[in-house]
Design brief:
The complex is a heterodimer of chains A (438) and B (267). Chain A is α+β, with helices and mostly antiparallel strands. Chain A has helices spanning 14-27, 46-49, 52-60, 77-89, 113-119, 124-129, 132-139, 141-150, 184-201, 241-254, 292-303, and strands spanning 3-7, 31-34, 37-41, 70-74, 168-177, 203-214, 218-219, 222-223, 227-238, 261-273, 308-313, 323-327, 350-361, 364-366, 372-373, 378-382, 394-403, 407-414, 430-436. Chain A contains eleven helices and 19 strands. In chain A, strands 13, 14, 15, 16, 17, 18 and 19 form a seven-stranded antiparallel sheet that branches. Chain A has a four-stranded antiparallel sheet with strand order 2-3-1-4, with helices on both faces. The longest helix of chain A is centred in the middle third of the chain and has 18 residues, at 184-201. Chain B has an eight-stranded mixed sheet with strand order 6-4-7-8-3-9-10-11, with helices on both faces. Chain B has a two-stranded antiparallel ribbon with strand order 1-2. In chain B, strand 9 (202-207) and strand 10 (216-222) form a beta hairpin. In chain B, helix 5 packs parallel to helix 6. The relative contact order of chain B is 0.16. The chains are: A alpha+beta (438), B alpha/beta (267). The interface between A and B is large, with 71 and 74 residues.
Chain lengths: 438, 267
């Protein structure tokens, strides 16, 4: 058995205590709170973390001594706690442990200290030398049991800490926040607690909700809600706070506070089992950089979801209906299969969002100068079934034309509809610019 | 006598210098009459005539390449298409297109990539990630983010016509990022940017073709090697379109419909 005891001073805030607990649970499942100390049984995890020193490094991090954190390690948790108490009292550990440990650092001996001192019993060894039956009769069974447990002769029973199903933590802000970016500092602390929780529960997060409590009930006569919320989603389960922090930062840079906020709460909406990051053995597969969904999500937050998109080819003959745009954030993970045969090397690589009407001078279309058609017309007729919009039906002759400045362009001439021949009395042809060749 | 001696001395020195240079290749040093050996690998552009004039024999695998296009023809990216299609075939992941060219000006209807045509060039639709961003700052930011992504195959960015907003320092930052993450980045700018200095090791200008100069007209403005004064006329990589344009003389009578096609012919 290898026990660690950790003392967290009162100056550490409740949320940070929670983080310490979560971090301990990440290293071993056997963590308990005994009196003032957090104790960890790590013998089963030593090999995983590369030895006791490495594990301590993981647990304590870098700035632990600045925060006033103390730790001790021993074969049983009672000895570890006793050593921790000696440290707090500023006394050096005794030469032989646990025989020479003073009884004042044993929790079960506290009610009997004065009697024991008068008997001449000051160390654990002295007490253990006394006849067991007499000790049990005089001081009760718990003292004897504690002594046995301290010497490892009895199974230690602790109530192990367990983690809740969902992460939910609320922190008071250090000062009233008047703008959303001011929440970032507290959000970061919440996110590091979330990361510890995720690691301890072996889960990856898919959606989180940030909620800040407003300090005012009404502002300018308008009743305010008690809280405001922000929901964040990511496409793949993640444990890395880097991506979440950037997402939160981008969202907060855009969010507006209805009133100053005084508290921030973070909870998970959706989590998934964490499979771990898989890496390849081949060096050429180890490309550095972040994942695609992280890129798409970050761009979508800052630029707007409809600005980051994939084209999707559709089976139609009308050029404007041959593709449609899907937001990349919504279409992640699903590979959109293109209809077979919907590709044509004779089409231009650029399409105008809306056809641009062209000026016609003496029967010739003009776009920055006269356009000379280079090909025979390609007739496209279709969409008669599309009666929902007037634009659905297409009756066009497409040409490739050359412009002096812009190179090859794709233009069309609209043909009169059969039913509307009498209405289109004027004989001027209508020309449009619809695409441009690379 | 003295002058002869010095000339001999210099020539002797230059011989030793050449010997030193040929004996071991110094990074970043190349003889002025030959193309440099680039530090990063290169891949073929798809145009043999262009490959022969580029250091390493193609586009660099990582780093910034600047392409200058006429202000009215910012959409002429044909010179990139074969290489990008080949890269998409070899690697998995998306090609990121940032911004889009416009034919007329900022208020004109913007051009959008037309996926059936791009699919015919070997660039399937589901691998084109198109990012609309209006300002230059946003486009530069999006470039940097796209370079950081491990899955990105290449990044192609159009910078808006008003060039005053793009600082060379911003482009240098992108170049360093592209080299760092091993991604090719193509920045397409207007020819007006030719006067400004560039951190890109490779800068090309594409001219609009005309009747007396058909095909792709490409000038190499900057490369690691001797300056190239002639214009390269490259064969268009669109044989079917060329065949169509060849089939009819340019004096086509637009009124007559001789050839009607409904729908698509598979390429």
């Amino acid at each position: 058995m290898h026990w660690l005891a950790l003392y967290l001073p009162d100056t550490i805030a409740a949320a940070d205590r929670e983080t310490w607990r979560l971090r301990a649970l990440h290293l071993t499942p056997r963590v308990a709170q005994v009196d003032e100390a957090l104790v960890l049984e790590v013998s089963a995890s030593l090999r995983l973390w590369g030895g006791a020193d490495r594990l301590l490094q993981q647990l304590l991090g870098s700035n632990w001594h600045l925060a006033g954190v103390l730790y001790a390690q021993a074969a049983t948790y009672l000895i570890a706690i006793a050593l921790l108490r000696l440290q707090r009292l500023g006394q050096p550990p005794p030469q032989s442990c646990p025989q020479q440990l003073p009884l004042s650092v044993l929790g079960a001996a506290q009610p009997h200290l004065s009697v024991l001192a008068r008997v001449g019993c000051t160390t654990w060894g002295d007490l253990r030398a006394l006849p067991r039956a007499g000790v049990a009769r005089r001081f009760g069974l718990p003292l004897l049991e504690a002594l046995d447990a301290a010497h490892g002769e009895r199974v230690e029973t602790c109530t192990w800490l367990t983690l809740p199903e969902d992460f939910d933590l609320r922190l008071e802000l250090p000062a009233l926040a008047t703008s959303a970016p001011e929440l970032m500092w507290t959000a970061q602390r919440l996110l590091s607690a979330l990361q510890a929780w995720l690691r301890a529960r072996q889960r990856g997060v898919l959606a989180i909700e940030l909620e800040w409590a407003l300090d005012l009930k009404r502002l300018d006569g308008v009743l305010l809600p008690p809280t405001q919320r922000l929901t964040l989603r990511t496409a793949e389960p993640t444990q890395s706070t880097d991506h979440l922090r950037r997402l939160v930062g981008e969202h907060l840079a855009r969010a507006a506070l209805a009133a100053p906020a005084n508290a921030l709460r973070l909870r998970t909406l959706e989590t998934a089992p964490w499979a771990g990051a898989s890496t390849s053995l081949l060096p050429q597969d180890l490309r550095k950089g972040e994942k695609l969904h992280e890129l798409v999500e970050r761009l979508s937050v800052r630029l707007g979801a409809e600005q980051v998109r994939w084209p999707q080819t559709l089976a139609d003959h009308r050029p404007e209906h041959r593709q449609r745009w899907v937001n990349a954030r919504d279409a992640q993970g699903q590979s959109v299969a293109s209809p077979v045969g919907n590709q044509d090397a004779l089409l231009p690589t650029w399409l105008l969002r809306e056809p641009l009407p062209l000026r016609v001078v003496q029967g010739q279309p003009y776009f920055q100068g006269p356009l000379h058609t280079l090909t025979s017309p390609q007739r496209i007729e279709g969409g008669w079934w599309d009666t929902a919009t007037a634009e659905g039906t297409v009756l066009r002759d497409y040409f490739v034309a050359r412009s002096a400045q812009s190179g090859l362009l794709w233009i069309y001439r609209e043909r009169a509809r059969v039913g509307a021949t009498h209405a289109a009395s004027d004989t001027t042809e209508r020309w449009f610019l619809h695409g441009a060749y690379a | 006598m003295v002058s002869i001696y010095t000339v001999q001395k210099y020539s002797y020195q230059s011989k030793t210098m050449a010997a030193v240079l040929s004996a071991r290749d110094l990074p970043g040093v190349w003889p002025a009459h030959a193309l440099a050996t680039p530090s990063v690998a290169a891949y073929a552009t798809g145009f043999a005539a262009l490959d022969a004039e580029l250091p390493g024999g193609g586009w660099p695998e990582a780093g910034l390449v600047e392409l200058l296009l006429p202000a009215q023809a910012q959409h002429r990216w044909l010179v990139l298409l074969p290489a990008l299609a080949a890269r998409l075939r070899q690697h998995s992941g998306p090609l990121v297109l940032i911004g889009a060219p416009s034919l007329l000006g900022p208020q004109a209807p913007a051009l959008e990539p037309f996926s059936p045509a791009l699919a015919a060039q070997g660039m399937p639709a589901h691998r084109l990630l198109c990012i609309n961003a209006t300002s230059a700052a946003q486009r530069l930011w999006a470039c940097e983010q796209a370079l950081r992504c491990a899955d990105t195959v290449a990044v192609v960015a159009w910078l808006p016509a008003r060039e005053g907003t793009v600082q060379p320092a911003a482009l240098r930052r992108l170049h360093v990022g592209a080299v760092d993450y091993g991604k090719p980045l193509f920045v397409l700018r207007s020819v007006q940017a030719q006067q400004a200095s560039t951190p890109a090791p490779l800068r090309l200008e594409v001219a609009v073709e005309s009747d007396h100069a058909p095909g792709l007209q490409v000038r190499i403005l900057k490369r690691r090697g001797p300056p190239l004064h002639s214009t390269l006329a490259l064969r268009s990589p669109l044989p079917r379109l060329d065949a169509l344009l060849q089939a009819r003389p340019s004096t086509a009578v637009s009124g007559e419909v001789s050839h009607a096609l409904v729908g698509a012919v598979p390429a």
